Structures are given as C-alpha cells and as structure tokens.
Amino acid sequence: MRLNEILQVAGRHKRRRRVGRGNGSGYGKTSGRGHRGYHQRAGSNRQFGFEGGQNPLLARIPQRGFNNANFRTEYQIVNLDVIEQRFGDGDRVDAEALAAKRLIDGSGGPVKVLGRGELTKRVTVAVDKLSKTAAEKIAAAGGSVESA
C-alpha cells in the first residue's frame, strides 16, 4: 500500500489542527506551544542553524580549499538527433534559432552541440562549442561548422 492509494473513507485527507478552541480539543490554552519561551510568542521564526546566540557549527568549522563550482561555465546542451528532428536541410543552427524552437532557454548562456544520434541533413552550425564526434558527423553529412 502506498500513501497515494489510500481511499477517501480510510482518511485520505487529514483534518487541519484547530488551535485555541478550548481545552477539550486538546489544543486549548497554550494552543500546543507550551509555556514561555521564544516559540510560545507570536512571530517566532528562528533561522536555520541558529544556536541561541552561540557561534553556529557551520561558522566554527574552518572553511578550507577551493571550489570551482561558482566559476565554472554552464553550457546549454543540444544533441544532433534533436537538430535532425527540428531543423530542415540547409538551415542555420545558432543560439537564436535554437531558442526560437525552445531547445534552449533564451538566457544567452553558451551552447554546446553533442554527437548523440545521426545527422543526414546539411546544416550550418554556429555555436560556442562542439564535441569532436558532433563536428565529424556534421562534416560527414555535408554541413559546415562556424565559430560563433
């Protein structure tokens, strides 16, 4: 049995907790917040990692090393089989044409063509980067590659 297979009669929808409606409800008086303290008051919303004013664990641990993730180049990837399906013979494949066909988003990031699939149409490809196999398959199909 899975949670998404539970029938309506078996309690599929859990009732909302109604607090502050008398002691008989089980959530009267303090409304499930307990007595005193930060979380008992209105507007309590402690930020992640907060340790009561003590220097948090994340700040106590030394941050070492270098991570290139912040500086790496994220390419938008298009494969040859997609170009084969969406473009005609003699078409120009560049960032504008790919964005117009919604194969990449129009953020203006660099585009890379990879060599998955076969190419039979003669297309002119003008993107930022190509894989070696993609360039070979484009040339074999009679197409050309321009450096963008």
Outline the structure in words.
With about 150 residues, the protein is of the alpha/beta class. It has a domain at about 75-145: Ribosomal Protein L15, Chain: K, domain 2. It has helices spanning about 55-60, 80-85, 95-100, 130-140; strands spanning about 75-80, 90-95, 110-115, 125, 130, 145. The chain has a 3-stranded parallel β-sheet. The protein is elongated, with a radius of gyration of 29 Å. It starts with about 55 loop residues before the first helix and ends with a strand. The mean pLDDT is about 90.
List the helices and strands and how they pair.
Blueprint: H1 57-60, E1 76-79, H2 80-86, E2 92-94, H3 95-100, E3 111-114, E4 124-127, E5 129-130, H4 132-140, E6 144-147
Parallel strand pairs: 1-3, 2-4, 3-5, 4-6
Task: Write a concise synopsis of the structure shown.
With 148 residues, this protein is an alpha/beta fold.
Average pLDDT over all residues? 89
Structural class: alpha/beta
- Computed over alpha carbons, the radius of gyration is 29 Å
- Strand proportion, as a percent range, falls in 5-15%
The helix tally amounts to: 4
What ranges have pLDDT less than 50 throughout 5 or more consecutive residues?
none
Roughly how many Å apart are the termini?
A: 55 Å
Largest sheet: 3 strands, parallel
Adjacency order of strands in the biggest sheet:
1-3-5
N-to-C SSE string, H for helix and E for strand: HEHEHEEEHE
What is the CATH class of the domain at 76-147?
A: Alpha Beta
In CATH terms, what is the fold-level topology of the domain at 76-147? Ribosomal Protein L15, Chain: K, domain 2
Mass-distribution shape: elongated
Work out the number of β strands: 6
Helix share, percent: 10-25%
CATH architecture of the domain at 76-147: Ribosomal Protein L15, Chain: K, domain 2
